[in-house]
Amino acid sequence: MDLVTPGIGLIVWTTLIFLILLFLLKKFAWTPINNAVKTREESIRAALSSADKAKEEMLLLQADNEKIIIKARNERDSLLKEAKEVKETIIEEAKQKAESEAKKLIEQARTSIKNEKFSAINEIKEQVAILSVEIAEKILREKLANDKEQKDLLDKLLKDIKLN
Amino acid sequence: MNLNLMLMGSKYRKLILVSFISATFSLVPYFGNAQDQHNTNEQDTHAAVISDSGSHDSSSHSQSADATFDPGLFIIDHVKDSHEWHLWTKADGNHVSVPLPIILYSKESGLQAFFSSKLAHGHHHKGFYLEDGKIWEELANHEIVSPLDFSITKNVAGMLVAALIMLILFIRMGSIYRKKELSVPSGLNGFLEPMILFIRDDIAIPNIGEEKYAKFMPYLLTVFFFILINNIMGLIPSVIPFGANVMGNIAVTFVLSFITFIITQFNGTKTYWKHIVATPGVPFWLAPVMIPVEIIGLFSKPFALMIRLFANITAGHIIILSLISLIFIFKSIFIAPVSIAFVLFMDCIEILVAFLQAYVFTLLSALFIGLAAKEHHH
Fold first, then answer.
1. Rounded to whole angstroms, how far apart are CA atoms A146 and A14?
2. What ipTM did this prediction achieve?
3. Contact (CB<8Å) B175/A35
4. How far is Cα A67 from Cα A61, in angstroms, rounded to an integer?
5. B interface test, pick of A1, A3, A10 with most B CB neighbours within 10 Å
């Protein structure tokens, strides 16, 4: 029976010890520990949420970057296109210019060739005239070496003149 | 035994060592007593002297005089509270024990304080004497009464040491947490913090609710660790300040459950009291039946709390002591290995029970407080 009848002394001591323990621990242990745990949990929560935010921002940034890249690429493409066009036009123009220049040059060459030809032909004509005169002179000299022949020619020439 | 020790992993080695030490220390007094009994059998004339000087109270007095081992007395002796801290019994039958302060209030002589060594061996001191583990007073008119006994008994001393351990442990922890609020718990704090968080997240918040739990956390934490540390200290036998069967004492569990009861009633909401006085949905003419039932229910909850803790811890101690007693019942040292193996097993279970009962007491306290303090939304 002793085992299940509580003694007054032990009740008093237990109450005293437990209440003092409760008071001291509440003041010096549980309150700071619980507060620290709470602040730590809050900081972890804040850190996690800020990390999430950063992630979202990163995603946004990434999307922006992609947009910018696409834009830049388009711009580059259009620039390239323009440049190509410009190049082609320049080449075309240059070609045309060159062609016209060439034509002009050819024309000039032709005219100068013509002129040269004319003058050459004239010269040749002159030369031919001189030569033919010389040749005629020589031939005449040969033919008119005897008197008979001279007479014949004179006759002939006279005849021609008469005819004229 | 050694083979077992070697076979086990190093993880369990500490546990086994503790249990082994516990088993050996439990044996020490009765190796002594066995010799004592031998002596008394051989020398009858000397027996009276030995028993007279050797017993600290009449239970072991009768034990050595009868010279037969009474496991019942042996067990009850160890489970009960005591006015001195018995360490071991010498071969000549003398007990070696640490005296504890005795504080008495007598109607005749007022407040008295002295050491229990003055009452040892059946001595009378100022009319006070020890019998059956209780202090009696012989008044001037030869009337025998029992004075109010506020002694620092074995249980009180054990409890004080447990309280001291808790203060050192948790105030140190608290100061570290106060200084560096965002530090990572290290060392022992890393072991204690999860337990604190467990009590908060798995006991207090689910049972009391998010809004009100914080108010009750100090009580729940204190009661959990108080029970746990006392239970574990109670499993380490005989060496001061261990081995006191604190939570296996009904006075201690009574106080703890009474505090739970007080907290529960003082935090009862309107709906809680309304449920007791006039349970909704019950016809008014049933009130004469329902109100007594509700009031019994009020008291049966902490009563169950008190009995559960007391019975569990006492039962554990009794089983371990019974297994030790086997050696002396069989009067053979060869039964010891079997006995020790069983005690080891029981000690492991008792460590589990130490945690479990601390948890159950805290959980049910939180549940009762929650039932009273929680706002119910119908």
1. 185
2. 0.78
3. no
4. 10
5. A10
Calpha distance B112→B65 (Å, rounded): 32
Query: CA B13, B14, B15, B17: dihedral to nearest 10 degrees?
Result: 80
Of A9, A25, A35, which has the smallest distance from its Cβ to B218's Cβ? A25
Burial code (b: 16+ CB inside 10 Å, e: under 16) for B224-241 equals: bbbbbbbbbbbbbbbebb
Which residues on A lie below 8 Å from B81 (Cβ)?
A: 7, 10
Q: Which residue has the tokens 């024990």?
A: B97
B159 and A37 within 8 Å at the Cβ level: the answer is no
Chain B residues touching A35 at Cβ < 8 A: 177, 181
- Residues B276, B295 contacting (CB under 8 angstroms): yes
Indicate whether B41 pLDDT > 50. Answer: no
Taking only the tens place, the pLDDT of each residue in B21-39 is: 444 444 444 443 433 333 3
User: Considering only CA atoms, which of B252, B88, B73 is closest in space to residue B158?
Assistant: B252
What percent of chain B is modeled with pLDDT above 70?
Answer: 81
List beta partners, residue B152.
Answer: none
